[in-house]
Specification:
Blueprint lengths: L2 H27 L32 E2 L5 E2 L24 H8 L2 E2 L5 H4 L7 H14 L16 H7 L3 E2 L7 E2 L5 H4 L7 H13 L6 H7 L5 H7 L3 E2 L4
Parallel strand pairs: 3-4, 5-6
Antiparallel strand pairs: 1-2
């Protein structure tokens, strides 16, 4: 680039800077015409303090219930005003709810209608509980109720304290019961029933839980532990 081109570039930059300076000045410091205000109206630049705030007067010419005019201005109470003792207390839970929560039922003798008196138990769930209980031969533990199909855990926790245990469940004679009756028990699978009957036919009677643990595969040992309270190893 020769000197002529260099000077031309400098001149262009100088003009650009000049235009920018003029624009900036006009945009920030140029004289602005005074805003015209309605007659008698003045804009104050002083700070507004709480004491200078003027609260408009309300119409105090209020007619009371007697037809006279009351000049007193209603005053709102501050936040520290206590609630009148005449106000009604928060509503307590109805007595029917408390009675329902205090009701107790026996897990092995309660009818479907009695189960329906508990929280969250309707005809559908009560029918399932009773049918499951009959298939087991009775509950030996309150916790077994929670195994009922379709019974939410939240509902069981709510009613658990209202369930009374009972020791009147039916026993299964493991050495005399036939195959078709054995596998319908909820804790016994068809495969488990088959191994038990086959052992009886080929080896002899089942005399203890140790025999059963040897007969039944390990994957079903948890079922055997739940089944144990129902078993009778008597030989007839």
């Amino acid at each position: 680039m020769n000197k002529k081109d260099t000077y031309r570039s400098y001149a262009i930059w100088m003009l650009l800077l000049l235009f920018y300076g003029v624009f900036y000045y006009l945009n920030n410091y140029a004289w602005i015409d005074e805003i015209s205000l309605p007659s008698g109206e003045v804009i104050s630049t002083s700070l507004i303090t709480p004491d200078s705030v003027h609260t408009p007067k309300r119409d105090t010419n209020i007619e009371d219930g007697t037809g006279a005019h009351n000049n007193a201005v209603p005053v709102l109470s501050n936040a520290s005003t206590k609630i009148s003792p005449d106000l009604p207390a928060p509503a307590s839970k109805p007595s029917s709810y408390r009675a329902r929560k205090s009701r107790k039922i026996n897990i092995n003798t309660a009818s479907a209608e009695e189960w329906q008196t508990l929280y969250g138990i309707g005809p559908y769930r009560s029918d399932r509980i009773v049918r499951f209980r009959n298939a087991l031969g009775g509950f030996y533990s309150v916790d077994q109720v929670s195994e009922t199909y379709g019974l939410p855990d939240s509902v069981f926790r709510e009613i658990k304290v209202q369930l009374l245990p009972d020791s009147s469940w039916q026993l299964i004679n493991i050495n005399t019961i036939v195959y078709d009756s054995l596998y319908i028990h909820p804790y016994i699978t068809k495969q488990m029933a088959y191994f038990i009957v086959k052992h009886r036919e080929t080896t002899g009677p089942v005399t203890s839980m140790e025999d059963l643990y040897g007969i039944i595969r390990e994957k079903d040992h948890e079922r055997l532990r739940k089944l144990e309270p129902y078993l009778d190893f008597g030989i007839k």
